[in-house]
From TrEMBL:
<dbReference type="GO" id="GO:0006952">
    <property type="term" value="P:defense response"/>
</dbReference>
<keyword id="KW-1133">Transmembrane helix</keyword>
<dbReference type="InterPro" id="IPR058192">
    <property type="entry name" value="WHD_ROQ1-like"/>
</dbReference>
<feature type="domain" description="NB-ARC">
    <location>
        <begin position="90"/>
        <end position="262"/>
    </location>
</feature>
<dbReference type="Pfam" id="PF23282">
    <property type="entry name" value="WHD_ROQ1"/>
</dbReference>
<keyword id="KW-0677">Repeat</keyword>
<dbReference type="GO" id="GO:0043531">
    <property type="term" value="F:ADP binding"/>
</dbReference>
<dbReference type="InterPro" id="IPR044974">
    <property type="entry name" value="Disease_R_plants"/>
</dbReference>
<keyword id="KW-0812">Transmembrane</keyword>
<feature type="transmembrane region" description="Helical">
    <location>
        <begin position="35"/>
        <end position="53"/>
    </location>
</feature>
<dbReference type="InterPro" id="IPR027417">
    <property type="entry name" value="P-loop_NTPase"/>
</dbReference>
<keyword id="KW-0433">Leucine-rich repeat</keyword>
<dbReference type="Pfam" id="PF07725">
    <property type="entry name" value="LRR_3"/>
</dbReference>
<dbReference type="InterPro" id="IPR032675">
    <property type="entry name" value="LRR_dom_sf"/>
</dbReference>
<dbReference type="Pfam" id="PF00931">
    <property type="entry name" value="NB-ARC"/>
</dbReference>
<protein>
    <submittedName>
        <fullName>Uncharacterized protein</fullName>
    </submittedName>
</protein>
<dbReference type="InterPro" id="IPR011713">
    <property type="entry name" value="Leu-rich_rpt_3"/>
</dbReference>
Amino acid sequence: MSLSLSKQTQFGCEVDLLNFFLGCLMVLLMKRNMWLFFVGAGFSYSLIIISSWTDITPQSEDFELHDHLVIQVDSLRHQVPDKMHKLLDKNCEQIKSLLRMESKEVQKLGIWGMGGIGKTTAAKAVFHELSSQFDCICFLANVHEDSNRRGLNYACSRLFSELLGRDVDIDIDAPEIVPSNVMSILGNKKVLIVLDDVNSSEFVEKLIGARHDWLGAGSIVILTSRDRHVLMSARVDVIYEVEAMNFQDSLDLFSLYAFNQTHPETEYEELSKTAVSYAKGIPLALAVLGSSLQCKTKSAWESILNKLRMIPNPKIQEVMILSFNKLADAEKEIFLDIACFFEGRHIDQISRVLDACGFFADIGIKILLDKALITTDSHSCIKMHDLLQEMGRDIVYHESIENPEERSRLWNSPDVMDVLTNNRGTDAVESMFLDMTQIPNLHLSSYAFKKMPNLRLLAFDSGNSSMIKNHVSIPEGLELPANLRYLQWDGYPLNSLPSIRWEKLVDLSMPHSNLQKLWNGAQNMPMLKKIYLPFSTLLIECPDLSGSPNLESISFLGCESLGQFHQSIFTLQKLEELDVSGCTSLTSLCSKTCSPSLKRLYAVGCTNLQECSITTPGDQCKTHLYM
């Protein structure tokens, strides 16, 4: 009999799962002396199972098959467990809901998210679901890579050849011009196009035209990209963000790769949960880890997972680092500062410090947000996915594998301890973060920082624990680098500040310190914007702040020994917030010349406060007093 294959459908299931299915199928067929063939190309395939090799003759245009069975790949999806449908298509229904299928307008939709999050999988699922409703369809994968390697004309030829169903040679001399012969054919066709991995809005304009008026009524163009700005510049109608998978779905997907089933084997359950916790909902990481652990012993699992704590998986890193490599130098510095120092801190704090470092933080942070390299939570704190943070730290680690003092940023507690206690600092070190919950008592010399003139960021962090005091022992006369922009020292042990030239400092944070006073007289601190000294219970007085005209926020929360303020605090022209709550020794809070910039004054729990009078010039008072 003559077999004429029907229009081939597009498949959306994962390649590894399909390969596993086909492998099992091949074993069964070989036992019956049967063979299996793929017919098709790109995303279009049919499976042909034949009972005899002699049924196929090279000369015949039509296959003469006896006792044959033809299976369209589309039907394979219906044999995949329901759980797998859920994992593959979790975003599909939400994306479809954003499209107006009854509309006659041409629609453009963007799918956005970090590398490995499943943008392509989501696009494939939507493409598969919708393709039967269109006259012409095309899924162009890796368009950025292909166009860079082979040029725009190649990408155009691919697009129009697939849409028209025949080879088309395109030679575009000017952007935004679609060949007239293509326009005449496709202008009346309802077209579905997916451009996967787009990183330039100009590329989209050149490929499909700025007005896309060559597309027929009801056509849809779907773009996937790691860069939200690219999608916005391409004038998409709506952007769908692909989010990380929840833990249970992550465990199911991981199990498919590790055990070829949607749940872990009993003896591997806890190890599987450890692997899933590492992946943090990223499908790429779940697939890579699951595949690498398949058919391995428990001891091998333990070894591989322990290794991940020190050395990231290279296959995951290869995908993650692509977005980083496309950043400008200043944006890379911001990314690495967040990965190694600032992750979890408020965006305003990060911006003012990095601005002082010359990084144009507002612009850089916006770019990192658009490229899905960072996010913000409901409290406007910067968050970075664990795998991206791991990638950033790995970049710094490889600046000098053997000698941590030659790296630009230090965050690993043993490395920081080694550099500080042995006075091994160098001019390469720009930031240092020490988690004091992970160290024994630390004894520093007064010269511990002398060899680090380029140190910009320094934090001795207690993780919000008020119990860590005197954890670090330092002598009087400690010298800190003049290049510091940010100084955080939780539980600072001395009663006076270390010796430092204050000209560049932007943020001073010493909660739960032993400070009794800050400094004598007015210090020249032109860039200082924040003083944060809560629960410094020995602090007696607020010093002259007239040398800090750019101060915006001051906190003496819980400084119960603080009895008086220097009047200069009320004349600061940029001060917006002052918190003296819990200052139980404070008896008077008065000023006749308070700056009109002061918006919030907190004096809750000042139990001995007898007089409170704040006056601003004329009718400019905008201060809210909280008592």
